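Sorry to interrupt, but I need a hand with the structure work. Go ahead and set the record down below:
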Amino acid sequence: MLSEDQRKEVKDTIQRMIAEAEKELKILKELTAAVEPDNSIGRISRMDAINNKSVNDAAYRNTRKRLKQLQNVQDMVDSPSYGKCVRCGKPIAYERILIMPEKRVCVHCST
């Protein structure tokens, strides 16, 4: 069970993580722009640019997914069930909650 001080710290952490994810999404959106075929770059450079775009596309999708999870869990922090594993019902380690507040399972159940 989380104390009120811990809940406040988790809420602050979630707010900070949401702001960071939103900032990262803006940067990644620029990096995922289409590689124009008429650019006067060499074949190898174009292949490298296409590869980088694929990596950035994946990072964009993952960051967007995490942002949605953080936004969803933001309202759950005050719930008495928040901080308990949804699989086994045992408390999730506070340190894990601070690192990954969007995760709803304990370390044991996550493997």
Notes: Residues 4-79 form one domain. The chain has four helices and no strands. The longest helix spans residues 43-74.
